[in-house]
Amino acid sequence: MQYLKYLFVGVFFGIVLVKSEAVSWYRIFEMFQFQSFHMYGIIGSAVGLGAVGIWLSKKVGVKNSEGRPIALPAKEKSFVRYLVGGSIFGLGWALAGACPGPMYILLGTGAFSVGILLIAAIAGTFVYGLLRSKLPH
Q1: Rounded to 10 degrees, what is the CA torsion of 92, 18, 119, 43?
Q2: In angstroms, how far is CA 137 from the centroid of its own chain?
Q3: What CA–CA distance (Å, rounded) separates 26 from 94?
Q4: pLDDT tens, 82-99?
Q5: Angle of CA points 85, 86, 91, to nearest 5°
Q6: Mean pLDDT value across residues 53-65
Q7: What span, in angstroms and rounded, lies between the C-alpha atoms of 64 and 86?
Q8: 57 CB neighbour count, 10 Å cutoff
Q9: How high does pLDDT run on average in the chain?
Q10: pTM for the full model?
Q11: How much is the CA Rg of the chain, to the nearest whole Å?
Q12: 128 CB-near residues (< 8 Å, 6+ apart)
């Protein structure tokens, strides 16, 4: 029962993404072809809102759901790992037409072929977990 609030937030987030067309394959294709500002506007708005939210959280001293102060980890100095990781993520996003979160939303909207992508994403995450200790981090 305590997790019901997270379910409602997830459903609301899914509705917002569907209505804003952020889960539309055509919008994602336009973004990767640099044909439309739509997705860049959504992502830029999210980054800006997130930055303001973090700044306000620090200023006001917001606490997490367990009552502890929110602490952000120290910044990493390595740029290469973010470049490589972001490139792999972007390539997967471009090939699949969806990033991991919207896959669940697309499945919920009836695009059942996304189930194949979701199974592959879960399998990839599992394989990463098996190989994590052997990979450079």
Answers
A1: 30
A2: 21
A3: 11
A4: 888 889 888 888 888 788
A5: 100
A6: 85
A7: 28
A8: 15
A9: 86
A10: 0.65
A11: 18
A12: 135
Distance, in Å, from the CA atom of 27 to the CA atom of 8, rounded to the nearest integer, reads: 26
3-state SS, 55-84, equals HHHHHHCCECCCCCECCCCCCCCCCHHHHH
- Calculate the alpha carbon distances from 81 to 1, 48, 77, 113, 131 in Å: 39, 23, 10, 32, 17
Residue type, 44: G
Q: Encoding tokens for residue 122?
A: 């879960």
Joined tokens for residue 130: 């098996």
Name the pLDDT band for 48 (thresholds 50, 70, 90). Answer: very high
Is the pLDDT score of 134 beyond 90?
A: no
